[in-house]
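Running this now, will post back.
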Amino acid sequence: MTNEIEKTNSETIKRLNELLSYVRHLGILNQKAVFRIDEYGQLNIWEHELKGKIGIQHNIVDTDGISIWLRIERLKRIAPPSLPEHIKEWVSIGNDPGSSPQVKDKLIKTLPEADAIQLVSNGIVAEKDVIEPLKEGFADIKNKDVIFRLENNPQIKKDINIYVNEQWLPWSEEEKPRRETIKLYDSLFSLQQNIEAQGDEQPNELILGIGIVRWSCEGHKIDYPLLEKPIEIEVDQKDGAILIHPRNIEPSLAISAFFALENPGVDTLLRFSKKHFSELSDDVEFSPYIHESYEPVLRQAATHLSERGIYWPDINPNKENREPNKVSESLEITDSWVIFAKPRSTTNLVQDIDRFQQNLEEPEKLAGYIPNPTKRLITELSDKKPILTSGSISLDGDSPSSSSTLSSHNNKNSELFFPKAFNESQIQVIDRLEENDGVVIQGPPGTGKTHTIANIICHYLATGRSVLVTSKGEPALSVLQKQIPEELRSLTISLLANERQGMKQLETAVQLLAAVVSQTNVRDLKQEIEASELRVKQIKYEIIQIDSEIKEWGLKQLNPVEKQFAGASAGITAMELAQQVLNDSGSHEWLPDELGSSEKYVPTFTDSDIAKIRDCRRKVGKDIIYVGKNLPQLQDMIDSANIAAIHNDLLTSIEIENNSKNSHIPPLAVSVERYVERARNIANSLKQL
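Update: finished.
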């Protein structure tokens, strides 16, 4: 039985290796043949262009021990020296050290005629240089246009020469290399911003190419590096310097042009390079500054790609000259390098396949296990139809978790460790992952896919597993990372645009775990686990109680309401009763009392009481407006004669008022005895009303 398993594993490894070799070859063939770097139409920086530049450091190591191949300082532009006041109008200078100062040979000024005559008499200007002004001035002031010529002002000419030779030229010579570094910095900074902004729609990558190949072959001019090493740009947060360091990706041979030309030496070169890099000592890092890390491959290329191939360093008379020669009929490979940007290609796919094949060649790395999804790629299909244990999965929103949802979980012995709200669909995902190699979840935006992934990640972490999440674009990973609970977020490692930041996240996570382990007491941890498990059981019991109460309330809504509340012969549900109340609300708005179904809301009057109140209301009629009013007694009212007399007095008062306005004031007369006293009594009676 053991021999049979070993035979099966050996056959599986063989088939898988053959499949990977086939895909690898397809990946190489599908690469577009590029003969020259300038075909990309993007930034390229040659090694000889950086030699001796101010503010540029090569091959350094930062405080974290990371190799920095290039460090470009963020220099500031220095303005040209200021012009002396008396020559400002003669000289124009710009901020570009490559543009010489512009010196005027003459100036034209409009001056009063008397001043112009004085200048002529002093010999400063010639008489012919005093002309009529083109622009007329004031009528009472006569002006002249005066032409000042530099040849007639030897002192001004001397001062200009002193400024240019002693101030501007030294500044220009010192500023030119600074401006070249600034231009290089701006180009790399813009490139880094473009790479981040373009994302995965137009993905680009930055490459350091070593071993420049220059060769005119079969009508094609080849001007391309033989070895490509992906690099990345990082901006130092302290001083803004640009740091260029290698990515954690193996170098690759850029041989698409030679494949297109069907060069017979390509296969031999591929095998040699693969062997060289696999056998490279661990203490030898691939670097353009370490010749032994790449030089054997370049020498092999010069030998096998052409009979007349030349490895230029062997015959270069000037070792300091790093500039490649021009393209010629003879193959020439240099040891110089170039930095350039290009669209991402299938190179990464080929490198991944190389790593897979290397693992297959080392059985100890497999540990006797090949994942089932991988086996399915090389296993003959079965003619039996698989039986699905559950229905399809559809994410249609996050419904709250409940005991009924948990009861549908297939694996009764396992717990679900979901920190976020979940629904039946998410439980189906976990169940299917336990039974199958993979699950495909589809749904429009906003249906909870990221939410589901966050729950699954936390569940797997709680059960002692690790999770790798991949995505086509970086934004999706950033959103997912924010969905992870804050307590676990520090353990997530995001390898996005900057690999160095990813390594720092890994280091932080490892340090955090180490600190937790060193500061954790096992006994206290066990007690905390027991307390947490007890709390979980208590919460589950509370959930069951809540579900029971919800069920009870649900039944109340479904069961018919008692007839004494429904007011109907047939029973109706609470929902129907509520609908009836809403429909008849216009007929009962006059009743402001609060109603309910408990005993305190039971009416304390009968139908006969309502009938008596209705009869009384009919009898009262319109006089109901006096309900609650304080009416005077009959004996307190004055007699009719007095009311008539007062009425007459009021009419007389109005008539007197009208006559007084017209200056017709009749004599006063008294019609009632003690009228003043009686009027005051009436006023008091009216106030009481």
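The first helix runs from residue 2 to 29. More later if anyone needs it.
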